[in-house]
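thought: user wants a sequence for this fold. calling inverse folding tool.
action: design(structure=
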C-alpha cells in the first residue's frame, strides 16, 4: 500500500493510559452560540507511571477559558495547546488530583454534527467515536471509564427539557428565566457514551418491569404532536427488553430508559447509556407515512441500540480497533431478534442480499479491511459493513461451530467475566474456547484477513461403490492483503439431496471434519468422501449462508433448477434460483454487448411461475424470488469491464419476457391478494403487500398499463403501497402524465414531512437513464433540498450514486464529476457524511475503460482540492491507491 499523508493509528501501538479519570463532574451553561462547559476531573496517575509524566488530553475546535489543578490556575507555561488537544506538563507530585477545565463552544456553528450541536432549535450531542473532545478536553478513548455527574442549565422557555445519562437527581428554577437539572449515571462509562439533550419535545411514556422486578420508566421524545407516531418504536423497545432477558439473560440496569428522536443525525442511532439518540426516521411511523421497510428498520434499530446496553456499554471496547466486538455482536443479536419476530428465512435472505450488495464490494475493492482493522487514519470511516455485517456473520459462524448450547455458555461467560471491562476480540474468543473447549485459533483469522474467501467445488458420484466425493478448494484474493494468505476455517452447512428431494443419509465420511450438517473446511483443499450414499445426490451447500464466502459449484442449470424446487432449506432454494437467474442475466448482458438478441430460458420462467402460484410459500418469500438479482448484483458478478447500460437492457428484457409469459397468473394473483384492512404492520401483511407490489411492477412491464399503477397509487391506504406504486410509475414510465401527476400529488401531500419527502427525492434520483443527472441537479437546487441535513443528502445524492447505475455511470462521466463536486461542497459542512458519499466510487476500477478513465479523472481532481477533511482524504487516498 502507498503511504498515506496524515498519521495513521496502529493497533500494535496500543498502550494503556498513564492516567485514569475516576469521576467527572460536568456543568453546561447552554447558549446557542456560546455554551460554557465546566469539567472537573478526578484524576489518578496509573500505577507504575513516573511522577510528572505529561498528561495529554484530546480536544478538537475548543476554546480554552481556564484550566486549574487542585484549584490553582495553571500558568501558560504549564501546558501546551495544539490542534489535537492539550498537553499538561506541570503536574502535582500526588498521584491523585483534580483538574478543572472550562471551555467555550459554539453549538450553532457545529455543522459536523459531532459533539454538541443544534437540531431544529434543540441541543443534542453525538460523541461516538471522538465527539466528546469537541465538548471539553478529555482522555477521549474507550478504555477510560468514569462515573459522570452532569448539571445542565438553560433557558426554561426554549429548552424546557434537560436530559443526560442515568437518573435525574435534582432540578429547579434559576434566575433570569433559566433552570437546571442534574443527572447522575452510576455506571462507569467511556466518554463516547455520554449524551445530552436539551430542547422542547413531546413524550410518549410507558413502563417495563424487568424479570427481577425493577420498574423501568420508558420515555420516547419526539416533536410535539408526533407522540402517536412513536408507538411502534415503544412497542419494539418493550419487545426488545423482554427478548434480551429471555434469550440472553440480559436485564436493564437503570430506572429510566429514554430515546430522543432528532432530524439531523449522521448515522442511524446511538446507544448512549440510558439516553439513546435516534435519527427520527428510525423512530417515527404510522401507516400513512411509513413503509413496511421503515417499520422493520425501526424494530431492528431500536433493538440494536437497546442491546448495546450489554454488548457495548456494560462491556465496551478497549480501543476503536475492537469496534466489531460491540457492533458485530450487536448486529448479530438484532438480526436474531428480527428473525424471531418475523420470518427467519425471509430475514436471512434479506441479510444476505444486503451483505452482498454492500460488504462484498467493499471487501473486493480498495477500501477492503479486516473485520478488526489494524490501522486507521480516521475512525469514522470504519463504521463499515465489514465491521458491522461481516462482523455479525463471524459471530454467527461461532455459533455454527460450537452449537447453540456452546454459544449460550460462551456468552454467559463473556458477560460474567467482562462486565465492566473495556475488552478485546481476544477476550471474546477466549470465552468461546474456555466455555466449549473448542480450538478457535484458525477461526480467529476471520478477524484479521480481509477479502471474501472463495470455495471451488467439484462433485462426483461413484455408483458402483455408492460413494459421493466432494472436492473443495478454498482461496482468497484481496486487493489489500499482502504477503501470505492463510487457509481459513469455514463452516459449510450442507445436505445431500436425493432425487425425491429428501436429504440422503451416508454411512461414513472421510477427508474433512464433518459434524452434523456442517463440513469444517480448514485446509486449502479437501477431498471428502461420503460412503454408503444409495442414490446420486445433488449437494446443497452453504445452507442458511453458513459463511460469508463466494462459491463456484461446477454444476448444470438442471441441478440448480432441481435445488430451487426441492431443497428443504428455504435460503438454499432461493440461492439456487438466484444463481440460475444470475447465469441468465450474465449471458443476456453478454448478448446485449455483442449485439445479439436476448432470450430468457424457459426453465427459469417455469420455476418463477411455479413459485408465483405456490400458495404454500410465504408471500414475502415469493416476492423475493420474483425480484431477480439487481443491476448492482449483476455488475458485481461480472466483476470487470462493466457496462451498466448493457446490464440494464439485459435485465429489463429478461424481466419483460418473464412478465409477459406469466401475465395471466400475475394478474390473477394481483387480484386475489388482499392485505388486511385497516393496515397492520406485521410481517405477514407486509409480505402480502410486498408480493402484490412486486407483481404490480411486473404487470406494468408486460402491459405498459400505467393506469393500473396510477390506480394502485391513488387507492393506497398506506405508505408502502403509495411509495411502491410511485416507484413503478417513476422508474418504468418516467415521462407519463400519470407519473407527473402522482409525483406532484405526493409532494403536495407530504411537503411538511421531511421523512416522507426523502422518499420523494430518492425515487426521482433512481429514475434510470441519461436524464437522471439533470433531474438530480435540479432537485439539489430546489428550496426543499438542504446540504446540512444528512438524511436529505443521502436521499438525493446517495440514492443517485448507489441506486441508479445507468444514470450515475453515464458514459460521458458527468455523473462522477457531479458526485465529486457534491462531496467537495459537503466536505466543508459535514466531512463524515461527505466521506461516506464518495465511497460510492470505490469500485471505479471495475468499470469499462471509458468510464473508469472519467472516474479516475474526477477522483483525482477532488483529491487536488486545497482544503480536504481527513475523512474524505482518507477515503480518496485508499480508493486511488
Ligand atoms: N454505535 C452506533 C450504532 O451502532 C453508531 C454510531 C456511529 N457514529 C459515528 N459518528 N461514527 O448504532
Ligand atoms: Zn451499533
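)
observation: tool returned 881 residues.
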Amino acid at each position: 500500500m502507498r503511504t498515506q499523508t496524515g498519521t495513521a493509528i496502529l493497533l500494535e501501538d496500543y498502550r494503556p493510559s498513564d492516567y485514569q479519570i475516576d469521576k467527572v463532574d460536568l456543568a453546561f451553561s447552554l447558549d446557542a452560540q456560546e455554551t460554557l462547559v465546566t469539567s472537573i476531573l478526578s484524576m489518578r496517575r496509573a500505577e507504575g507511571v513516573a511522577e510528572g509524566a505529561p498528561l495529554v488530553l484530546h480536544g478538537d475546535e475548543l476554546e480554552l477559558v481556564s484550566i486549574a489543578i487542585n484549584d490553582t490556575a495553571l500558568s501558560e507555561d504549564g501546558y501546551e495547546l495544539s490542534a489535537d488537544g492539550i498537553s499538561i506538563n506541570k503536574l502535582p507530585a500526588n498521584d491523585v488530583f483534580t483538574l478543572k477545565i472550562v471551555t467555550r463552544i459554539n453549538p450553532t456553528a457545529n455543522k459536523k454534527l459531532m459533539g454538541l450541536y443544534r437540531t431544529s432549535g434543540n441541543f443534542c450531542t453525538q460523541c461516538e467515536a471522538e465527539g466528546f473532545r469537541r465538548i471539553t478536553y478529555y482522555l477521549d478513548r474507550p478504555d477510560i471509564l468514569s462515573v459522570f455527574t452532569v448539571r445542565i442549565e438553560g433557558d426554561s422557555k426554549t429548552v424546557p427539557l434537560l436530559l443526560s445519562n442515568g437518573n435525574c437527581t435534582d432540578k429547579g428554577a434559576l434566575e433570569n428565566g433559566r433552570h437546571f437539572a442534574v443527572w447522575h449515571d452510576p455506571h462507569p462509562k467511556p466518554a463516547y457514551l455520554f449524551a445530552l439533550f436539551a430542547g422542547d419535545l413531546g413524550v410518549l411514556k410507558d413502563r417495563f418491569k424487568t424479570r427481577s422486578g425493577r420498574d423501568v420508566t420508558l420515555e420516547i421524545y419526539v416533536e410535539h404532536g408526533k407522540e402517536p407516531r412513536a408507538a411502534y418504536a415503544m412497542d419494539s423497545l418493550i419487545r426488545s427488553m423482554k427478548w434480551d432477558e429471555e434469550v440472553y439473560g440480559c436485564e436493564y440496569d437503570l430506572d429510566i430508559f429514554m430515546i430522543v428522536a432528532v432530524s439531523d443525525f449522521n448515522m442511524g442511532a446511538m446507544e448512549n447509556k440510558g439516553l439513546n439518540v435516534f435519527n427520527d426516521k428510525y423512530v417515527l411511523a404510522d401507516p400513512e407515512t411509513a413503509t413496511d421497510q421503515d417499520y422493520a428498520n425501526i424494530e431492528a434499530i431500536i433493538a440494536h441500540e437497546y442491546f448495546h446496553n450489554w454488548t457495548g456499554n456494560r462491556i465496551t471496547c478497549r480501543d476503536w480497533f475492537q469496534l466489531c466486538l460491540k457492533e458485530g455482536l450487536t448486529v448479530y443479536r438484532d438480526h436474531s431478534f428480527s428473525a424471531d419476530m418475523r420470518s427467519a428465512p425471509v430475514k436471512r435472505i434479506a441479510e444476505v442480499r444486503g451483505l452482498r450488495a454492500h460488504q462484498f464490494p467493499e471487501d473486493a475493492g480498495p477500501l477492503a479491511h479486516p473485520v478488526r482493522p489494524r490501522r486507521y487514519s480516521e475512525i469514522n470511516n470504519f463504521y463499515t459493513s465489514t465491521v458491522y455485517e461481516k462482523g455479525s456473520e463471524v459471530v454467527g459462524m461461532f455459533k455454527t461451530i460450537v452449537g447453540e448450547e456452546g454459544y449460550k455458555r460462551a456468552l454467559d461467560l463473556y458477560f460474567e467475566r467482562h462486565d465492566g471491562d473495556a475488552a478485546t476480540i481476544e477476550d471474546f474468543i477466549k470465552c468461546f474456547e474456555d466455555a466449549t473447549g473448542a480450538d478457535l485459533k484458525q477461526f480467529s483469522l476471520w478477524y484479521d484477513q480481509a477479502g471474501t474467501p472463495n470455495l471451488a467445488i467439484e462433485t462426483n458420484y461413484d455408483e458402483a461403490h455408492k460413494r459421493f466425493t466432494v472436492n473443495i478448494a478454498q482461496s482468497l484474493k484481496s486487493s489489500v492483503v499482502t504477503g501470505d494468505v492463510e487457509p481459513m476455517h469455514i463452516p459449510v452447512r450442507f445436505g445431500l439431496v436425493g432425487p425425491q428431494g429428501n436429504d440422503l443419509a451416508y454411512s461414513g465420511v472421510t477427508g474433512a471434519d464433518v459434524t452434523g450438517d456442517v463440513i469444517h473446511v480448514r485446509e486449502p483443499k479437501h477431498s471428502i468422501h461420503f460412503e454408503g450414499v444409495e442414490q446420486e445426490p445433488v449437494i446443497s451447500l452453504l445452507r442458511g449462508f453458513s459463511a460469508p464466502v463466494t462459491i463456484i459449484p461446477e454444476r448444470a442449470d438442471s441441478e440448480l433448477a432441481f435445488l430451487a424446487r426441492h431443497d428443504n432449506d428455504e435460503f438454499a432454494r432461493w440461492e439456487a434460483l438466484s444463481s440460475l437467474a444470475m447465469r441468465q442475466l450474465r449471458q443476456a448482458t453478454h448478448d446485449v454487448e455483442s449485439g445479439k438478441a436476448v432470450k430468457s430460458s424457459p426453465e427459469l420462467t417455469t420455476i418463477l411461475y411455479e413459485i408465483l402460484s405456490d400458495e404454500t410459500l410465504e408471500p414475502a418469500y415469493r416476492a423475493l424470488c420474483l425480484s431477480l438479482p439487481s443491476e448492482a448484483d449483476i455488475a458485481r458478478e461480472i466483476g470487470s469491464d462493466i457496462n451498466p447500460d448493457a446490464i440494464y437492457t439485459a435485465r429489463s428484457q429478461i424481466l419483460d419476457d418473464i412478465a409477459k409469459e406469466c401475465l395471466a397468473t400475475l394478474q390473477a394473483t394481483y387480484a386475489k391478494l388482499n392485505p388486511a384492512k385497516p393496515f397492520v404492520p406485521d410481517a405477514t401483511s407486509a409480505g402480502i403487500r410486498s408480493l402484490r407490489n412486486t407483481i404490480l411492477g411486473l404487470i406494468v412491464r408486460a402491459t405498459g398499463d400505467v393506469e393500473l399503477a396510477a390506480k394502485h397509487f391513488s387507492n393506497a391506504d398506506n405508505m408502502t403501497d403509495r411509495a411502491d406504486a410511485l416507484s413503478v410509475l417513476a422508474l418504468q414510465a418516467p415521462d407519463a402524465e400519470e407519473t407527473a401527476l402522482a409525483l406532484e400529488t405526493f409532494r403536495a401531500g407530504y411537503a411538511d414531512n421531511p421523512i416522507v419527502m426523502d422518499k420523494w427525492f430518492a425515487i426521482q434520483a433512481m429514475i434510470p437513464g441519461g436524464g437522471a443527472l439533470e433531474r438530480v441537479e435540479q432537485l439539489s437546487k430546489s428550496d426543499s433540498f438542504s446540504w446540512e441535513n444528512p438524511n436529505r443528502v443521502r436521499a438525493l445524492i446517495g440514492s443517485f450514486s448507489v441506486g441508479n447505475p445507468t444514470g450515475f455511470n453515464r458514459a460521458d462521466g458527468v455523473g462522477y464529476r457531479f458526485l465529486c463536486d457534491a462531496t467537495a461542497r459537503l466536505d466543508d459542512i459535514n466531512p463524515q457524511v461527505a466521506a461516506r458519499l464518495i465511497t460510492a466510487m470505490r469500485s471505479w476500477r471495475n468499470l469499462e475503460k471509458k468510464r473508469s478513465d472519467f472516474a479516475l479523472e474526477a477522483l483525482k481532481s477532488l483529491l487536488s482540492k486545497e482544503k480536504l477533511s481527513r475523512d474524505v482524504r482518507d477515503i480518496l487516498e485508499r480508493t486511488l491507491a
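thought: summarizing for user.
answer: Here is the designed sequence. The longest helix spans residues 385-418.
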